[in-house]
Structure formats: structure tokens, C-alpha cells
Amino acid sequence: xxxxxxxxxxxxxxxxxxxxxxxxxxxxxxxxxxxxxxxxxxxxxxxxxxxxxxxxxxxxxxxxxxxxxxxxxxxxxxxxxxxxxxxxxxxxxxxxxxxxxxxxxxxxxxxxxxxxxxxxxxxxxxxxxxxxxxxxxxxxxxxxxxxxxxxxxxxxxxxxxxxxxxxxxxxxxxxxxxxxxxxxxxxxxxxxxxxxxxxxxxxxxxxxxxxxxxxxxxxxxxxxxxxxxxxxxxxxxxxxxxxxxxxxxxxxxxxxxxxxxxxxxxxxxxxxxxxxxxxxxxxxxxxxxxxxxxxxxxxxxxxxxxxxxxxxxxxxxxxxxxxxxxxxxxxxxxxxxxxxxxxxxxxxxxxx
Length: 352
Ligand SMILES: NC(=O)c1ccc[n+]([C@@H]2O[C@H](COP(=O)([O-])OP(=O)(O)OC[C@H]3O[C@@H](n4cnc5c(N)ncnc54)[C@H](O)[C@@H]3O)[C@@H](O)[C@H]2O)c1
What we know:
By secondary structure, the protein is of the alpha/beta class. It is built from nine helices and 15 strands. The strands form two sheets. The chain has a nine-stranded mixed beta sheet. A six-stranded parallel beta sheet has the order 3-2-1-4-5-6, sandwiched between helices. The N terminus is likely disordered. The structure holds nicotinamide-adenine-dinucleotide. Nicotinamide-adenine-dinucleotide binds next to helix 4.
């Protein structure tokens, strides 16, 4: 049974200079520049080196951050006695080897989503970090958005009542990945949010999907069954003419809509619901629809990655385990594996 921790503490004060964490970043492609920019801006971080195999990526680092040293050899970072923590921002199939070496060399690791290519690798990294007393943080970025932090708070306050469902749509045109299908690319976001919000281990998964262009599924639908009649659904698609980032969460007392693309009022809470009473047995059901007010809670506006990396530095300094630790990464990888298995068997129910 997984153990869960509540929201990260955003009120932790900056630590003194001696607690500075020395970082190296491996991978400066599409997402790496965001990690580098954020680490470089954090007071308690000394970002020493960035590594990328590609010469053009290294040139981009030098242009944007002339004070940071660059290298083509990951071992310059992994074996460095100066570096305390490594961020692995490379394609998923490289995560395991790089993170393992970093941990073996006594470094904390921040690893991109999805954590690893399979659950055996994730399990091995979790055990290695525990043995070495090091922290793993998996970049489940969305947990640190104002929207997810607010939804977590609403659930903690039982504002929605008993949870009925979680239904998320994450579709757009491309970006086609060469090494993974649309599930491994986009669904880690939804599965990690779901894991964080529902906080109960799922029972089983059904997934369907189809590949049309490059041999990897580009359209997929995942259904996740949780105990107590909680059900979740995720729609991920690289072939959508429009970009949609929309999540519905239904509870017994209230329901909410999170539109991640809205300029403001991203989360709207509806006082809507249904209650059923039966007068004379099940054949005489009386259905009452409740349609009350809608309100949009105020959300924190800070960039999620800034908050997340600051929290990682806190966890390292205090020796605390982050909510998005290696075990959280492992739980998501297990759901991804189960989804892949179900797709291969054309929608078979796969127990977790
Ligand atoms: N958290 C998020 O919201 C988010 C968003 C996008 C991507 N990602 C994740 O970030 C990771 C990287 O994705 P991307 O889109 O930036 O990929 P990318 O292909 O654009 O960039 C990867 C970079 O890593 C470099 N690289 C590969 N292997 C290397 C190695 N062994 N040593 C040094 N450099 C190496 C490549 O040269 C490339 O520049 C993936 O795991 C992806 O899922 C996360």
C-alpha cells in the first residue's frame, strides 16, 4: 500500500548560503531549458554544469547562460565530487542509466517524467536511493500548479464530498515522439495528478488506442478503476485539430471543471449534483437535481517548476521525502505499463 504525504510546504524560508545545493543538468533539448532557467534563478542553488550530447544544444546553453560550464560528457557531472544533485532531462530510455549512476555516486536526482521505461528499473532506483539515503524527485510538474494545489486543498477540506469520477482530456496536434507512444508522452501528467488527488491505489486499467503514422499509438483512451466506485478516464491524442486541457472532477456534494488553458478562472466549482431517493423500492426512484452557484477560487500564479525545484532543494536540505518521490514515479510507471499491456490486448482489463 502506497503512503502519501500532503501538499508541499511553500512557506519554507530560504536557507543560508552554506546550504546551497550544487546542481548539474543533463539534457538541454525542449524541456531542459526550463529546468536550467529555473535552477539558475533559485537562491539556494549553484548550477555548475549543463551536459548535452548535441553541440547545438551546448551552444544554446552558452548563449543563454554564459556563466554555466557545458560539457558533452555526462560523466563530467556524474563523477564530479563538487556536485550534490543531478537533473536528468533526457529521453525516457536514458533515465535509468543516468539516474542510477548519479545515485551510485552519492547524488540526489531530479528525473523527468516518465520516471523510467519500466517498473523494474523504477523499483531498483527507489531501493538504491533508500540505501544511499538520497532523494529522488520525479518531475510531475502539474502537482505544483496553482490549480492542482487548490484542488488538493478542496479535497482535503471534503468540499466535493465523496469522489465519483476524474475525467481528463489532453489532446493537441503533435508533438510526435520517436521513442514512446502518446500514453507514455502525455498520460504521465494525468496519471500523476490522479495519483496525487485520489490517493488510493487503483485496482485495474483498461486502455484502447491506435497508431496511424509512426508505429506508436497516437490516440488513446485509458480507464482506471479505483476502490469505492471511483472511476477515472484519460483521453490523450496527438491527432487533435485543437488543443484541449480539460479535467472534470465529480463529487457527491460538488463538481469542478479545470480548464488549464483558460486565461483566468481556470478552476470552477459547481454546486451541482444529483440525489436519488426511492419511495417504494427501486422501481420508483425519485431523482433530484441540484443546480446551485458556481465559484472560481483564487489560484497561486507562480510557475510550477519554480515551486517544484525550490521544494526539491528544501527536501534535500531537510532530508525529507518529496510527495513526487521515486515511489510516486513507480506508481505512474506501473499504470503506464498496465495501459500498454491493455492496448496490446485490445482493451483487456489489467489488474494492478
Ligand atoms: N515535465 C514536463 O512538463 C515535460 C515536458 C516536456 C518533456 N518532458 C520530459 O523531459 C524529457 C526530455 O524531453 P525533451 O522533449 O526535452 O526531449 P528532447 O529530445 O527535446 O531533448 C533531450 C536532450 O537530451 C540530450 N541527450 C540525450 N541523451 C543524452 C545523454 N545520454 N547525455 C547527455 N545529453 C543527452 C539530447 O541531445 C537532447 O538535446 C523526457 O523525459 C520528457 O518526457 C517533461
